[in-house]
Design goal:
The protein is 4% helix and 46% strand. By secondary structure, the chain is mainly beta.
Protein backbone atom coordinates (compact mmCIF):
# COMPACT_ATOMS: atom_id res chain seq x y z
CA UNK A 1 0.00 0.00 0.00
CA UNK A 2 1.28 3.46 -0.93
CA UNK A 3 2.14 5.81 1.93
CA UNK A 4 4.06 8.88 3.06
CA UNK A 5 6.58 9.22 5.87
CA UNK A 6 6.60 12.93 6.66
CA UNK A 7 8.84 15.17 8.74
CA UNK A 8 8.64 18.94 9.17
CA UNK A 9 11.77 21.11 9.16
CA UNK A 10 11.62 24.50 10.86
CA UNK A 11 13.63 27.47 9.63
CA UNK A 12 11.92 30.14 11.76
CA UNK A 13 8.89 29.78 13.97
CA UNK A 14 6.90 32.87 14.84
CA UNK A 15 3.64 32.16 16.64
CA UNK A 16 0.55 34.22 15.78
CA UNK A 17 -1.64 34.84 18.87
CA UNK A 18 -4.97 34.48 17.08
CA UNK A 19 -6.55 34.13 13.65
CA UNK A 20 -8.11 37.58 13.85
CA UNK A 21 -4.64 39.12 13.85
CA UNK A 22 -3.56 37.02 10.87
CA UNK A 23 -6.56 37.95 8.76
CA UNK A 24 -6.72 41.65 9.71
CA UNK A 25 -3.10 42.82 9.96
CA UNK A 26 -1.81 45.07 7.19
CA UNK A 27 1.58 44.92 5.51
CA UNK A 28 2.72 47.97 7.46
CA UNK A 29 1.70 46.35 10.75
CA UNK A 30 3.51 43.07 10.03
CA UNK A 31 6.69 44.95 9.12
CA UNK A 32 6.54 47.17 12.21
CA UNK A 33 6.07 44.28 14.66
CA UNK A 34 9.37 42.81 15.83
CA UNK A 35 7.62 39.53 16.67
CA UNK A 36 7.01 38.93 12.99
CA UNK A 37 9.43 41.05 10.95
CA UNK A 38 12.25 38.48 10.97
CA UNK A 39 10.54 35.24 11.92
CA UNK A 40 7.11 35.07 10.28
CA UNK A 41 7.95 33.25 7.06
CA UNK A 42 6.23 30.95 4.61
CA UNK A 43 7.68 28.59 2.00
CA UNK A 44 6.04 29.72 -1.25
CA UNK A 45 8.44 28.12 -3.76
CA UNK A 46 10.55 24.98 -3.53
CA UNK A 47 12.89 23.72 -6.26
CA UNK A 48 15.31 20.80 -6.11
CA UNK A 49 18.62 21.43 -7.88
CA UNK A 50 20.21 18.16 -9.07
CA UNK A 51 23.51 19.97 -9.69
CA UNK A 52 24.23 20.46 -5.99
CA UNK A 53 21.60 18.26 -4.32
CA UNK A 54 19.99 21.20 -2.50
CA UNK A 55 16.37 22.28 -2.21
CA UNK A 56 16.06 25.98 -3.06
CA UNK A 57 13.37 27.69 -1.03
CA UNK A 58 11.69 30.93 -2.02
CA UNK A 59 10.05 32.50 1.01
CA UNK A 60 7.55 35.06 2.09
CA UNK A 61 9.68 37.11 4.51
CA UNK A 62 9.07 40.67 5.65
CA UNK A 63 12.81 41.27 6.22
CA UNK A 64 13.57 40.47 2.54
CA UNK A 65 15.65 37.36 3.33
CA UNK A 66 13.79 35.54 0.57
CA UNK A 67 16.08 32.84 -0.83
CA UNK A 68 17.43 29.90 1.17
CA UNK A 69 18.73 26.41 0.57
CA UNK A 70 17.98 23.22 2.48
CA UNK A 71 20.47 20.36 2.46
CA UNK A 72 18.66 16.99 2.55
CA UNK A 73 21.80 15.30 3.90
CA UNK A 74 22.65 17.61 6.80
CA UNK A 75 19.09 18.98 7.27
CA UNK A 76 20.56 22.48 7.47
CA UNK A 77 19.23 25.74 5.99
CA UNK A 78 21.46 28.46 4.51
CA UNK A 79 20.56 31.96 3.37
CA UNK A 80 21.60 32.94 -0.16
CA UNK A 81 21.72 36.61 0.87
CA UNK A 82 18.94 38.21 -1.13
CA UNK A 83 18.83 41.03 1.44
CA UNK A 84 22.04 42.43 -0.07
CA UNK A 85 20.30 43.34 -3.33
CA UNK A 86 16.61 43.62 -2.39
CA UNK A 87 14.45 46.50 -1.23
CA UNK A 88 11.76 46.70 1.45
CA UNK A 89 8.85 45.78 -0.82
CA UNK A 90 10.55 42.57 -2.04
CA UNK A 91 8.89 40.25 0.47
CA UNK A 92 8.05 37.12 -1.45
CA UNK A 93 9.25 34.67 -4.09
CA UNK A 94 5.89 33.33 -5.20
CA UNK A 95 6.11 30.33 -7.57
CA UNK A 96 9.11 31.92 -9.23
CA UNK A 97 12.29 29.84 -9.23
CA UNK A 98 13.52 28.34 -12.51
CA UNK A 99 16.69 26.30 -13.13
CA UNK A 100 18.49 26.92 -16.43
CA UNK A 101 20.63 24.40 -18.28
CA UNK A 102 23.79 26.38 -17.50
CA UNK A 103 23.15 25.96 -13.78
CA UNK A 104 21.90 29.47 -13.16
CA UNK A 105 18.71 29.98 -11.17
CA UNK A 106 16.23 32.65 -12.25
CA UNK A 107 13.73 34.12 -9.85
CA UNK A 108 11.31 36.98 -9.32
CA UNK A 109 9.99 38.96 -6.38
CA UNK A 110 6.38 39.46 -5.32
CA UNK A 111 4.77 41.88 -2.88
CA UNK A 112 2.24 42.24 -0.06
CA UNK A 113 1.89 46.02 0.34
CA UNK A 114 -1.37 47.85 -0.32
CA UNK A 115 -2.24 50.47 -2.93
CA UNK A 116 -1.34 53.37 -0.64
CA UNK A 117 2.34 52.43 -1.09
CA UNK A 118 2.16 51.61 -4.79
CA UNK A 119 4.07 54.67 -5.98
CA UNK A 120 6.79 54.09 -3.38
CA UNK A 121 7.39 50.51 -4.52
CA UNK A 122 9.67 50.31 -7.59
CA UNK A 123 8.34 46.98 -8.86
CA UNK A 124 9.15 43.28 -8.85
CA UNK A 125 12.64 42.17 -9.82
CA UNK A 126 13.80 39.46 -12.15
CA UNK A 127 17.05 38.13 -10.71
CA UNK A 128 19.70 35.54 -11.53
CA UNK A 129 21.50 33.52 -8.87
CA UNK A 130 24.75 31.65 -9.42
CA UNK A 131 24.93 28.73 -6.94
CA UNK A 132 28.68 28.35 -7.49
CA UNK A 133 29.59 31.91 -6.54
CA UNK A 134 26.57 32.74 -4.34
CA UNK A 135 26.07 35.90 -6.41
CA UNK A 136 22.63 37.41 -7.01
CA UNK A 137 22.21 39.78 -9.95
CA UNK A 138 19.15 41.96 -10.48
CA UNK A 139 18.27 41.78 -14.18
CA UNK A 140 15.26 44.04 -14.58
CA UNK A 141 12.06 45.52 -13.22
CA UNK A 142 9.83 44.43 -16.12
CA UNK A 143 6.71 46.40 -15.12
CA UNK A 144 7.30 49.44 -12.86
CA UNK A 145 5.32 49.44 -9.59
CA UNK A 146 3.86 45.98 -10.19
CA UNK A 147 5.43 42.88 -8.67
CA UNK A 148 5.74 39.39 -10.11
CA UNK A 149 3.56 36.51 -8.98
CA UNK A 150 5.01 33.80 -11.18
CA UNK A 151 7.46 33.16 -14.02
CA UNK A 152 8.28 30.51 -16.61
CA UNK A 153 11.66 30.05 -18.33
CA UNK A 154 12.04 29.20 -22.02
CA UNK A 155 15.65 28.11 -21.77
CA UNK A 156 16.06 27.39 -25.49
CA UNK A 157 14.98 30.89 -26.54
CA UNK A 158 16.37 32.72 -23.53
CA UNK A 159 12.99 34.16 -22.53
CA UNK A 160 11.37 34.66 -19.13
CA UNK A 161 7.59 35.07 -19.02
CA UNK A 162 5.77 36.50 -16.05
CA UNK A 163 2.44 37.57 -14.63
CA UNK A 164 2.37 40.66 -12.43
CA UNK A 165 0.36 41.74 -9.39
CA UNK A 166 -1.61 43.71 -8.15
CA UNK A 167 -2.28 44.82 -11.73
CA UNK A 168 -2.41 41.57 -13.64
CA UNK A 169 -0.21 41.86 -16.72
CA UNK A 170 1.62 39.38 -18.93
CA UNK A 171 5.18 40.22 -19.94
CA UNK A 172 8.07 38.74 -21.90
CA UNK A 173 11.68 39.38 -20.93
CA UNK A 174 14.52 38.52 -23.33
CA UNK A 175 17.56 37.71 -21.24
CA UNK A 176 20.31 38.41 -23.79
CA UNK A 177 18.98 41.80 -24.92
CA UNK A 178 17.62 42.84 -21.51
CA UNK A 179 14.40 43.91 -23.22
CA UNK A 180 10.85 43.60 -21.87
CA UNK A 181 7.58 43.47 -23.78
CA UNK A 182 4.49 44.28 -21.71
CA UNK A 183 1.33 42.74 -23.18
CA UNK A 184 -0.91 44.77 -20.92
CA UNK A 185 -3.72 44.01 -18.55
CA UNK A 186 -5.11 40.45 -18.57
CA UNK A 187 -7.24 40.62 -15.43
CA UNK A 188 -5.86 37.56 -13.65
CA UNK A 189 -3.05 35.06 -13.86
CA UNK A 190 -2.23 31.42 -13.27
CA UNK A 191 -0.59 30.33 -10.04
CA UNK A 192 2.15 29.20 -12.40
CA UNK A 193 2.29 29.15 -16.24
CA UNK A 194 3.70 26.44 -18.48
CA UNK A 195 5.44 26.28 -21.84
CA UNK A 196 4.40 23.71 -24.45
CA UNK A 197 6.63 21.81 -26.86
CA UNK A 198 6.30 24.55 -29.50
CA UNK A 199 7.53 27.23 -27.11
CA UNK A 200 4.13 28.81 -26.48
CA UNK A 201 3.41 29.94 -22.94
CA UNK A 202 -0.04 29.26 -21.46
CA UNK A 203 -1.83 31.18 -18.75
CA UNK A 204 -5.17 32.78 -18.02
CA UNK A 205 -7.12 36.00 -18.51
CA UNK A 206 -10.20 37.25 -16.67
CA UNK A 207 -13.59 37.27 -18.40
CA UNK A 208 -15.12 40.44 -16.89
CA UNK A 209 -18.71 39.65 -17.81
CA UNK A 210 -18.90 36.01 -16.78
CA UNK A 211 -16.38 36.51 -13.93
CA UNK A 212 -14.32 33.45 -14.76
CA UNK A 213 -10.75 32.63 -15.76
CA UNK A 214 -10.20 31.74 -19.41
CA UNK A 215 -7.12 30.32 -21.09
CA UNK A 216 -4.61 32.38 -23.03
CA UNK A 217 -1.59 31.45 -25.13
CA UNK A 218 1.35 33.53 -26.28
CA UNK A 219 3.23 32.37 -29.38
CA UNK A 220 6.76 33.87 -29.47
CA UNK A 221 7.24 33.07 -33.16
CA UNK A 222 4.09 34.94 -34.20
CA UNK A 223 4.47 37.40 -31.29
CA UNK A 224 0.75 37.03 -30.69
CA UNK A 225 -1.50 36.45 -27.69
CA UNK A 226 -4.60 34.30 -28.25
CA UNK A 227 -7.46 34.82 -25.79
CA UNK A 228 -9.70 31.76 -25.62
CA UNK A 229 -13.32 32.27 -24.56
CA UNK A 230 -13.31 29.25 -22.25
CA UNK A 231 -11.28 27.89 -19.40
CA UNK A 232 -11.16 24.82 -17.21
CA UNK A 233 -14.00 22.56 -16.03
CA UNK A 234 -15.88 24.07 -13.09
CA UNK A 235 -16.52 21.96 -9.99
CA UNK A 236 -19.22 24.14 -8.40
CA UNK A 237 -21.31 27.27 -9.02
CA UNK A 238 -18.69 29.39 -7.24
CA UNK A 239 -15.69 27.87 -9.04
CA UNK A 240 -14.16 30.28 -11.57
CA UNK A 241 -11.57 27.88 -13.00
CA UNK A 242 -8.41 29.32 -11.44
CA UNK A 243 -5.17 27.61 -12.48
CA UNK A 244 -3.48 26.42 -9.27
CA UNK A 245 -0.64 24.54 -10.98
CA UNK A 246 0.49 23.71 -14.50
CA UNK A 247 3.31 21.76 -16.15
CA UNK A 248 4.53 20.25 -19.39
CA UNK A 249 4.04 16.50 -19.02
CA UNK A 250 6.68 15.56 -21.61
CA UNK A 251 4.07 13.66 -23.61
CA UNK A 252 2.79 16.51 -25.75
CA UNK A 253 0.23 17.64 -23.17
CA UNK A 254 0.07 20.23 -20.41
CA UNK A 255 -1.39 19.15 -17.07
CA UNK A 256 -3.29 21.61 -14.91
CA UNK A 257 -4.46 21.54 -11.31
CA UNK A 258 -7.31 23.89 -10.44
CA UNK A 259 -8.09 25.79 -7.26
CA UNK A 260 -11.13 23.54 -6.86
CA UNK A 261 -8.82 20.50 -6.73
CA UNK A 262 -9.38 19.07 -10.22
CA UNK A 263 -6.69 17.69 -12.52
CA UNK A 264 -7.06 18.48 -16.23
CA UNK A 265 -5.12 17.84 -19.42
CA UNK A 266 -4.66 20.46 -22.13
CA UNK A 267 -3.79 19.57 -25.73
CA UNK A 268 -1.76 22.58 -26.96
CA UNK A 269 -2.31 21.65 -30.60
CA UNK A 270 -6.10 21.91 -30.37
CA UNK A 271 -6.51 23.87 -27.10
CA UNK A 272 -8.94 21.17 -25.95
CA UNK A 273 -9.23 20.53 -22.21
CA UNK A 274 -9.97 17.09 -20.75
CA UNK A 275 -11.08 16.54 -17.15
CA UNK A 276 -9.04 13.76 -15.50
CA UNK A 277 -10.56 13.74 -12.04
CA UNK A 278 -10.68 15.25 -8.57
CA UNK A 279 -8.84 12.98 -6.13
CA UNK A 280 -9.62 14.88 -2.93
CA UNK A 281 -12.97 16.32 -1.73
CA UNK A 282 -10.97 19.27 -0.37
CA UNK A 283 -10.19 22.34 -2.48
CA UNK A 284 -6.87 23.28 -4.10
CA UNK A 285 -4.18 21.55 -6.12
CA UNK A 286 -1.24 23.97 -5.87
CA UNK A 287 1.32 21.16 -5.95
CA UNK A 288 1.92 19.39 -9.28
CA UNK A 289 5.14 17.80 -10.50
CA UNK A 290 6.22 15.12 -12.94
CA UNK A 291 8.07 12.41 -11.04
CA UNK A 292 11.12 10.62 -12.38
CA UNK A 293 8.99 7.46 -12.45
CA UNK A 294 6.52 9.07 -14.87
CA UNK A 295 3.80 9.60 -12.28
CA UNK A 296 2.24 12.99 -11.70
CA UNK A 297 2.34 13.98 -8.04
CA UNK A 298 -0.52 16.23 -6.90
CA UNK A 299 -0.57 18.23 -3.66
CA UNK A 300 -4.10 19.03 -2.52
CA UNK A 301 -6.13 20.42 0.34
CA UNK A 302 -6.23 23.34 2.73
CA UNK A 303 -6.90 24.23 6.38
CA UNK A 304 -4.37 21.63 7.55
CA UNK A 305 -5.95 18.71 5.70
CA UNK A 306 -3.35 18.49 2.94
CA UNK A 307 -2.49 15.35 1.01
CA UNK A 308 -0.31 14.07 -1.79
CA UNK A 309 -1.68 11.87 -4.55
CA UNK A 310 0.00 10.19 -7.50
CA UNK A 311 -1.71 10.05 -10.89
CA UNK A 312 -0.83 7.20 -13.26
CA UNK A 313 -1.38 8.41 -16.82
CA UNK A 314 -1.43 4.88 -18.22
CA UNK A 315 -4.11 3.52 -15.92
CA UNK A 316 -5.76 6.96 -15.45
CA UNK A 317 -5.96 6.19 -11.72
CA UNK A 318 -5.18 8.32 -8.67
CA UNK A 319 -3.18 6.79 -5.81
CA UNK A 320 -3.56 8.40 -2.37
CA UNK A 321 -0.16 8.58 -0.68
CA UNK A 322 -1.28 10.24 2.53
CA UNK A 323 -1.53 13.43 4.59
CA UNK A 324 1.33 15.87 4.93
CA UNK A 325 1.41 15.30 8.68
CA UNK A 326 4.32 14.86 11.09
CA UNK A 327 3.33 12.64 14.06
CA UNK A 328 6.39 13.75 16.06
CA UNK A 329 5.03 17.28 16.37
CA UNK A 330 1.35 16.39 15.87
CA UNK A 331 0.98 19.02 13.15
CA UNK A 332 0.30 19.20 9.43
CA UNK A 333 0.91 21.52 6.51
CA UNK A 334 -1.84 24.16 6.43
CA UNK A 335 -1.65 24.84 2.69
CA UNK A 336 0.73 22.87 0.52
CA UNK A 337 1.84 25.68 -1.79
CA UNK A 338 4.49 24.05 -3.98
CA UNK A 339 6.22 20.68 -4.30
CA UNK A 340 9.46 19.37 -5.76
CA UNK A 341 11.14 15.96 -6.04
CA UNK A 342 14.72 15.09 -5.13
CA UNK A 343 16.83 12.52 -6.97
CA UNK A 344 15.93 9.79 -4.49
CA UNK A 345 12.20 10.32 -4.98
CA UNK A 346 11.65 12.30 -1.78
CA UNK A 347 9.06 15.05 -2.16
CA UNK A 348 9.57 18.41 -0.46
CA UNK A 349 6.59 20.68 0.07
CA UNK A 350 6.44 24.33 1.04
CA UNK A 351 3.78 25.50 3.47
CA UNK A 352 2.05 28.89 3.35
CA UNK A 353 -0.70 30.98 4.96
CA UNK A 354 -0.78 29.18 8.30
CA UNK A 355 -2.75 31.54 10.59
CA UNK A 356 -1.12 30.11 13.76
CA UNK A 357 2.59 30.06 12.98
CA UNK A 358 5.33 30.30 10.37
CA UNK A 359 5.30 27.85 7.51
CA UNK A 360 7.56 24.80 7.53
CA UNK A 361 9.39 22.76 4.91
CA UNK A 362 7.93 19.24 4.78
CA UNK A 363 9.97 16.21 3.74
CA UNK A 364 7.78 13.40 2.41
CA UNK A 365 9.30 9.96 1.84
CA UNK A 366 7.15 8.12 -0.70
CA UNK A 367 6.50 4.40 -0.32
CA UNK A 368 4.82 2.84 -3.37
Amino acid sequence: MASLKTKAYVLKDAKIPNKELFYSNTFKEWVADERFYHDLIYFTTVMYNPNDGLVYCGLTAYDNDLLWTFDPETKEFRSCGYQKVGERFDVKIHRSLQLAKDGMIYGATACLHDLDQRTEAPGGKLFRYDPKTNKIEILAIPVPHDYIQTIALDDDRGILYGFTYPVWKLFRYDIASNQTKDFGYVGTGPHIPAIDDQGCVWGTWKDMYRKRDNLLRYDPEADEVTYFDYGLPLMSPVDIGTVDSMLNGGDGYLYIGTSAGALCRLDPKTAEVAYLGKPDPELRMPGLILGENGLLYCGTGTEGNTKIFAYDRESTKFIELGRVYDPEINDSSFILHHITEADDGTIYTGETDNPRRSGYLWECKVEM
